[in-house]
Amino acid sequence: MALTLFMFTACRISDIIHLGRDNEFERKGLRGLGWQPRKKGSAYVEVPMLPPLYRATRMSNVVGPTYLLNEKGVPFGSPEVLRNRFRK
């Protein structure tokens, strides 16, 4: 899931831990993701939800406030926690 999110959104690790279904929108029949990056001075970002990204976001058995959840089913607390998970 994380790799798919990184590939199709090109967002930073500090933003990816906050992305979830609340960031989805539909405009003129097209699905997309929109978010305000955490980096100071960054502009609002919108990307289309291409079919591989949409399928990946719907494959999870556990649905939470974010797409990426830890082994307990809760969002990652910080980007550093997710980085450590990748290292393992």
How are the secondary structure elements laid out?
Blueprint: H1 2-9, H2 13-16, E1 24-27, E2 30-35, E3 45-48, H3 51-58, H4 79-87
Antiparallel strand pairs: 1-2, 2-3
What do you see in this structure?
By secondary structure, this protein is an alpha+beta fold. It has one domain. It has 4 helices and 3 strands, in the order H-H-E-E-E-H-H. Strands 1-2-3 form a 3-stranded antiparallel β-sheet, with no helix packed on it. The longest helix has 9 residues. The model has no long low-confidence stretch (mean pLDDT 94).
Beta-strand share of residues: 15-25%
| Spatial strand arrangement across the major sheet | 1-2-3
Low-confidence stretches: none
Mind describing the biggest β-sheet?
3 strands, antiparallel
**Number of self-contained structural domains:** 1
Structural class: alpha+beta
Basic shape: globular
Count of DSSP helices? 4
What order do the helices and strands follow?
A: HHEEEHH
As a percent range, the share of helical residues equals 25-40%
Q: Give a count of the beta strands, DSSP E runs of length 2 or more.
A: 3
CA-to-CA gap between the ends?
16 Å
- How would you state the average pLDDT, rounded? 94
Our Rg estimate from Cα atoms comes to 13 Å
Quick overview of this protein structure:
Helices cover 33% and strands 16% of the residues.
Keywords:
88 residues; alpha+beta; 3-stranded antiparallel β-sheet; 33% helix; globular
